[in-house]
Amino acid sequence: MTRRPLSEERGSGAAELALLTPALVAVLMVTVLAFRVTQADAEVADVAAEAARAASLERTPAAAAGAAQAAAAANLAAGGITCTNLTVATDTGAFAAGGVVTVDVTCAVDLTDLLIINVPATRTLSATGREVIDRYRGAGT
Question: What is the model's pTM?
Answer without folding.
Answer: 0.75
